[in-house]
Every structure is written in C-alpha cells, then in structure tokens.
Design a protein that fits this description.
Elements: E1 2-3, E2 27-28, H1 60-65, H2 73-77, E3 83-85, E4 92-94, E5 104-106, E6 109-111, H3 134-150, E7 153-155, E8 160-165, E9 168-173, E10 179-183, E11 186-190, E12 195-199, H4 202-208, E13 214-218, E14 221-224, E15 230-231, E16 235-238, E17 241-244, H5 250-260
Antiparallel strand pairs: 1-2, 3-4, 5-6, 7-8, 8-9, 10-11, 10-14, 11-12, 13-14, 15-16, 16-17
Amino acid sequence: MGYELTIFREILVTSSKEVNLTIPLKESIKELDEVMIRPQLNKEQPLNKMVTTGARMLSVEEASRYAGGMDDPARLVSSFAGISPSMSTNGISIHGNAPHLLQWKLEDVEIPNPNHFADLSILGGGILSGLNKAVHKAIAYHSLLLKEEKENIEAGNTEYFFVKSERRYFKINYKDILFIEGLKDYVIIQLDEQRVITRMNLKNIFELLPKHNFLRVNKSYIVNTKHIDSFDNNDIFIKTHEIAIGNTYRDAFFETFMRMG
C-alpha cells in the first residue's frame, strides 16, 4: 500500500513570503501475487546428524497428507518395507522385532517411547530392557562386535602386526607407530608418512600393544614413547604433533615413562 504520485509545476517561490501547498494524498493499492516459501529438503538426509545409515526424514506435514498417516509419523512409517503396524496402537515391528524392543533416542540420548499410545507392549526405550532377556541380546551383539574388531588385527611377531583397512591387510611395524588416535568405533594408526584407519576401539587395540613402548595419555590417544621428542606437564610433542596429557592419566604417565627411561 502507498500513495499515487502527484506533480506540481511552475510554483513561484519568493523570499518575501512563504509558499504553502496543499497536497491531497490518494491511496495507491497494489495487489501482489501469492508468495509461497518452501525449504529445500533432502528426504534422504536425516535431521539427526549422528545417524550414519538407514535413516529418512519424515515431516509432520507428510503424516497429515498421506493416506493412513493419521497425523502420526509412527503410522506413516508402517508403509515402508519390513515394518508391520499394530491395528489397535501405533506400535511398529521392524523386521520381526517386538515394538517394546525398539530403541528410541532424542539427540542421541536414549528415552522412553514418546508414543502417546504407549503401554507395556510398546513402551521400550530402556524401561524394560533391564527386566527381560533383551539385555542378553545386547551382550551377545557386543560380544560379536568385539570378535569382529579383533579379527581386524592379525599378530605377526614381536616386531609387527597386520591390520585390516579397506579390505586389505597392512603390515605395521611397532617401531614405526607414532601414536594411535581413537574415534569411537575406529582407530587411526599414525605412522611417519601414513595413516591407517581400522574398525576397532582404543581399549582393545591397547591390549594388543607391547606395554614397554606404548602408553595411554588420555581417553583418545596412545603414544609410542620411543618417538616422544619433548613434553611438559600438560602436553607431549611428537614431531609436529601436540597431544594433551589427560588429568586422569597424568600421574601414571610420568611414573611409567620415567621408569622406562
């Protein structure tokens, strides 16, 4: 909304008397076309960045638009392959697992089922896992995972071992390792001019290393003491790398390292 343009011509302006103008204003109304703003969405990209695979974003708008959604994302998921819905509730069974064995997470923190129909048959989310045999399944799963991790390393002798990375086994000499960095389910073995990444956690690979040369200095790093160039109360320096000494590891590091020297 605004005002129409008004033009006055040949107005005499003198220095002896002020000039007063009366300017009528007439509204100028312009009707704009409809404007629709839509976000650029990738349905294959989950909102939770911590999800690595098998995730798809579902919006509330989709749950209300598609047949059978009934304004409920859980019912909307039931149309995907391998998922069986419940007729009386919106509990879902994924590839034959019971609804109460599903794991619900919010920002990667396990929570009870946010389902407004939740009862003992679909509660899940850690509430029942401590009371039934589902916890034994978890133990079995982690045991198999640990076995798989150990199979990624083949011990050679006291001088080297083979580590599996990208479908190949690489020979790693103990003396060539500068340090090892842990990244959740993977470790990075840092050599002088190479990095080897394998699926294994830091605790398990530390158990396989010779203790007279390797020390854990914080929750994410194991260092080869033979390559330590210098250190102070807070950090270790290996070539161009600077590694912090964790508070809980400091006393043990200095005591063991000095004894090695």
